[in-house]
Write a structure and sequence with these properties.
It is an enzyme of class 3 (hydrolase). Keywords: Metal-binding. It is a single chain. The chain is of the alpha/beta class and 167 residues long. The protein is built from three helices and ten strands; from the N terminus they run βαββββαβββββα. The protein has a single domain, classed as Purple Acid Phosphatase, chain A, domain 2 (4-Layer Sandwich). The chain has a five-stranded mixed beta sheet with strand order 3-2-1-9-10, with no helix packed on it. Strands 4-5-6-8-7 form a five-stranded mixed beta sheet, with helices on one face.
């Protein structure tokens, strides 16, 4: 099994990144979907695939593509892909890159859904939640050895599993 930590929209709140890094140090891949508002070289973001959000500065890429096992990830913040109107533009960009998974942020609302064959994951915001469950969140994607994929959402304050509350 492979473990992928996905966070977004931390907005200067390094305490959430620090806690996630410590609790999930066994992860195979760390993704930050933008709006960290930190320098790209900030030590808490070391080892992360990271992209530029609408509130970021510096030399972040607009999107990133990375592979883990048989999966290819397309990572973006989402604001340049009209994510507030739905995932279609992000999914199209992911498919153009040959990605099977698209990770994005910007809306601060946790989402896990398959759209046109692409698993779309928005981990929500650790710092400023929106949507049904009004607690900060992040996501963990488990890539099982049998090829199945499982997404779980966690409260960024106490790290309890809140997936069932979102369904």
């Amino acid at each position: 099994m492979k473990k992928v930590v996905i966070i977004s929209d931390t907005h200067f709140q390094t305490k959430y990144i620090t806690a996630v890094n410590k609790l999930h140090s066994d992860a195979d891949l760390f993704i930050h979907c933008g709006d960290s508002q930190l320098e790209v070289t900030h030590p808490e973001l070391a080892g992360y695939v990271k992209v530029k959000g609408n509130n970021d500065f510096g030399d972040y890429p607009k999107f990133a593509v990375t592979d883990l096992g048989n999966e290819r990830f397309f990572v973006t913040h989402g604001h340049l892909y009209s994510i507030e109107f739905g995932p279609d533009v992000v999914v199209q960009a992911a498919r153009e890159q040959g990605a099977t998974i698209a990770c994005y942020g910007h809306t601060h609302v946790p989402v896990a859904e398959v759209v046109n064959g692409v698993l779309c994951i928005n981990p929500g915001s650790t710092s400023f939640p929106r949507g049904k469950v009004r607690v900060g969140s992040y996501a963990i994607l488990y890539l099982e050895d049998d090829g199945s994929r499982r997404v779980r959402f966690y409260n960024s304050n106490d790290h309890t599993d809140i997936t069932d509350e979102l369904l």
